[in-house]
Amino acid sequence: MKKFLILATALIFTSTLGAAPKELNIYMIDVEGGGGTLIVSPSGESLLIDSGSGGHDDRDPKRIADLARNVAHITKIDYVLITHYHGDHIGGIYALSKLIPIGRYLDHGELTLELQKPEMVAWWRDYKALTGDDRTVLKAGDKIPLKGVNATVVIAAGQAITTPLKGGGPNPVYCKDAVQKPTDQDPENGMSIGTVLTYGHFRFSDLGDLPWIQEQLLACPTNMIGHVDVYQTNHHGFDRSGSPQLVWALQPRVAIMNNGFKKAGNQFTFETIRKSLNFEDLWQSHLSLNADKAIQSDEKMIANADPNDDKGYWIQVTVKPDGKYTVTNGRNNFSKSYVARN
Q1: How would you classify the pairing of strands 77-81 and 46-49?
Q2: Total-model pTM
């Protein structure tokens, strides 16, 4: 009888462990100031947003594939979303496809801008040849079928959603007398796909390289997104993006900047984020050489802090079903936990 009780207790304990809810993991991969965000949903399905740059002995695709296998512990990327067709977002896709299986490709549609740039046309041609019938063109309002989370396209090809997401609404305070900027010097940035991912109460935004003028479609006169818990800075922290009207409307508790040592991470961007209501912490992919060190994060919250020793460290966000989320620096394992808004 005693042995039976011990066995029964063990079986109940094992069953409880097996039924435990899984976590959402988001990895900001170091692709030297390009785009490379890997999302692994609680179901185990994965979404990679952008593929970094090509060249450099396939540095970025190798980092993505290595992290996918050895850190995220997945053997396939179910979806790759290319926000737009600039080299630091699409350039690594061909090499990456040779390193790890990819299920389906998502993008904003045909290349119609910057056709005078031979490298853009070459990236587009190679991408179309690679993807073939495995492509899906996304539009504002579409849902990405990533099991276990709600992933909504809020803007694509310069068109934004017309009905606010939950928590959105009029944005008169931040839009009044708002400073505007002219059309971005690289118009393909304005075609960027922007997504908002929701898991329980947790919300995360990745808006690609959306520039200031297109950000206004999501910010003024209506905040179309609502609040987010984690905001991946637009356009790597360039001051051509990250308008106060959008950032302050989002009110992120945590921001993560996917900058490079010498790429983006501008002073204005740091100042704007730190003035946001309810803001708590900024994490950085790299120390920025383009802004005062005093306004940047503590060294322990910067994944790559030494310009002479860039090992390609990542930043990870782990989200539990109850809304608690933890941000971890892949270089030193420093982490800090937060609670999502209800």
Answers
A1: parallel
A2: 0.93
